[in-house]
């Protein structure tokens, strides 16, 4: 019933995987994929491939698939199947008629076993880093039909393109059971892995991923052309040209640095600083009060509500009567990179005629020494296709700034994660988002950062929320495309 396709790495590693697979009585054949020297293995069929993720390789594998189901293993470390795991994959695939079935799994890292649950696939799960785990269980008919429909030849994005095309017409089903163990060799923290996609050396990969995603959005009627609603910057009168907004809770160690980096800004316009203190208990409030007594540009807000996240605090600042024409972000952990940041941002609004503007930042330690991956500039964003490519990635960059009247209209989701991404999707549906590719901002990583090292439950919760944001946005864009005819 099952063809298994596994990549060759080392003889010992592959031997463990083969031994684990052969415990299943439903196994039809094992295909070993190699790229260089032909390995010597008995009882398996050998397939030479140029790589593991290209369209060409998928076509080749589909031509070898003869059993009703195909298992594709995507890692090059040993795969250790759980009790009757393949039988369970087979049963669920038959029951659900899904095109792809995937499951929760265990990860073995340095001898320590950790459960890694995955999340359900939904319309907005089109990001290219969606975690299926390393085992994809495919309906072979769907496998063959989908590969036959793939028109573009990708070197890096073949598997991503395949998954999107399957998702358009078939169910992707998640088994909430831990069915196998995969060996992991990447011991980096979550905060270090999350920026791999913006590493310049991965640029060719990202360009292919963007093309595959864009074609998919066109297929499902959610693609938006680079046609934007003009922004009128004279909609209202404002007390100042720009307001920096800092939501804060218990950041006595960092808040003074953040505030100081605002106060030294050199501009040809009047600005203020709105600090929204969300019931701090560690002395943060007193620090802000003392600084406000010394500089009238600082406005301290103490919300009456006790249910506010970061987004809710942003709403408090944005809707305050003293908020300026442009609302500019600064996190309480971080600092502006130089005294001309605010001037550069405001100039950017007028020069690019945009409703939202996103800059570039540098990852640093607490002492402002650059740490990997260094500068995060999100150069994958383009005027022509940024609004579509935004649906493929999980973040849009920083610092972020907004034309206040439109931000007041849309409101900021009252969450403490993803509220900025939600705004980026909403703004880009209608308006141009401007970009500045010079580093404006130091994003400091230190022991109390909320996202320095996240556990799997937190990561899944964050990803599930952003997938839901994308689902909502895709539905809205599909409706918009239909209205425009």
Explain this structure:
By secondary structure, the chain is α/β, with parallel strands linked by helices. The protein has two domains: 2-187, Spore Coat Polysaccharide Biosynthesis Protein SpsA, Chain A (Alpha-Beta Complex), CATH 3.90.550; 242-484, Spore Coat Polysaccharide Biosynthesis Protein SpsA, Chain A, CATH 3.90.550.10. It is built from 15 helices and 18 strands. The chain has helices spanning 11-21, 55-64, 85-96, 140-149, 158-169, 190-193, 203-219, 255-263, 284-294, 310-318, 341-352, 386-389, 404-410, 419-430, 456-484; strands spanning 2-7, 27-34, 45-48, 69-73, 79-81, 100-109, 112-116, 135-139, 172-183, 242-248, 271-277, 298-301, 326-329, 335-336, 356-364, 370-376, 400-403, 433-444. The strands form two sheets. Strands 1, 2, 3, 4, 5, 6, 7, 8 and 9 form a nine-stranded mixed beta sheet that branches. β10, α8 (255-263) and β11 (271-277) form a beta-alpha-beta unit. α2 crosses α5, α5 (158-169) packs parallel to α7 (203-219) and α14 packs parallel to α15 (456-484).
Characteristics:
alpha/beta, 9-stranded mixed beta sheet, Spore Coat Polysaccharide Biosynthesis Protein SpsA, Chain A, elongated, 485 residues
Concise account of the structure shown:
With 485 residues, the chain is an alpha/beta fold. It has 15 helices and 18 strands.
Largest sheet: 9 strands, mixed
Number of domains: 2
Please report the total strand number as a whole number: 18
Give me the number of helical elements: 15
Q: Which radius of gyration do the C-alpha atoms yield?
A: 25 Å
CATH class of the largest domain: Alpha Beta
In round numbers, the mean pLDDT is 94
CATH architecture of the largest domain: Alpha-Beta Complex
- The CATH topology of the largest domain: Spore Coat Polysaccharide Biosynthesis Protein SpsA, Chain A
Low-confidence runs of at least 5 consecutive residues? none
Which geometry do the CA atoms define?
A: elongated
């Amino acid at each position: 019933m099952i063809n298994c396709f596994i990549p060759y790495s080392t003889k010992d590693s592959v031997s463990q995987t083969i031994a684990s697979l052969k415990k299943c009585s439903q196994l039809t054949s094992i295909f070993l994929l190699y790229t260089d020297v032909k390995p010597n293995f008995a009882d398996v069929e050998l397939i030479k491939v140029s790589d593991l993720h290209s369209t060409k390789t998928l076509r080749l594998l589909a031509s070898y698939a003869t059993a009703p189901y195909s298992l594709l293993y995507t890692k090059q470390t040993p795969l250790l199947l759980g009790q009757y795991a393949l039988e369970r994959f087979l049963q669920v695939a038959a029951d659900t008629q899904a095109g792809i079935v995937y499951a929760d799994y265990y990860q073995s890292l340095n001898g320590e076993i950790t459960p890694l649950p995955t999340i359900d696939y939904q319309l907005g799960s089109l990001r290219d880093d969606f975690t299926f785990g390393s085992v994809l269980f495919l309906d072979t008919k769907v496998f063959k039909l989908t590969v036959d429909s793939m028109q573009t030849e990708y070197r890096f994005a073949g598997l991503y393109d395949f998954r999107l095309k399957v998702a358009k017409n078939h169910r992707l089903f998640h088994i909430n059971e831990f069915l196998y163990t995969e060996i992991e060799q990447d011991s980096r923290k979550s905060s270090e892995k999350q920026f791999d996609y913006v590493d310049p050396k991965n640029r060719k990969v990202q360009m292919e991923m963007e093309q595959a995603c864009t074609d998919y959005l066109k297929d499902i009627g959610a693609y938006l052309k680079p046609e934007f609603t003009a922004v009128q910057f004279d909609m209202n009168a404002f007390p100042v040209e720009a307001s920096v907004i800092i939501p804060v809770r218990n950041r006595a160690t960092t808040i003074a640095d953040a505030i100081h980096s605002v106060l030294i800004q050199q501009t040809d316009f009047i600005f203020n600083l709105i600090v929204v203190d969300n019931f701090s208990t560690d002395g943060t409030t007193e620090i802000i009060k003392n600084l406000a007594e010394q500089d009238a540009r600082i406005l301290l807000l103490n919300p009456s509500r006790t249910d506010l996240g970061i987004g809710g605090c942003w709403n408090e600042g944005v809707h305050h009567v003293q908020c300026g024409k442009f609302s500019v972000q600064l996190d309480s952990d971080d600092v502006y990179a130089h005294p001309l940041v605010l001037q550069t941002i405001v100039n950017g609004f007028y020069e690019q005629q945009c409703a939202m503007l996103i800059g570039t930042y540098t990852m640093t330690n607490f002492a402002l020494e650059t740490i990997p991956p260094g500068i995060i500039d999100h150069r994958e964003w383009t005027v022509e296709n940024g609004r579509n490519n935004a649906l493929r990635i999980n973040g849009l960059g920083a610092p972020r700034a907004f034309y206040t009247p439109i931000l007041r209209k849309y409101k900021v989701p009252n969450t403490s994660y993803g509220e900025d991404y939600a705004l980026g999707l909403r703004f880009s549906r209608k308006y141009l988002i401007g970009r500045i590719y010079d580093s404006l901002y130091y994003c400091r990583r230190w022991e109390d950062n909320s996202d320095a090292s996240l556990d799997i439950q937190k990561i899944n919760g964050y990803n599930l929320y952003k997938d839901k944001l994308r689902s909502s946005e895709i539905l809205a864009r599909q409706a918009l495309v239909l209205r425009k005819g």
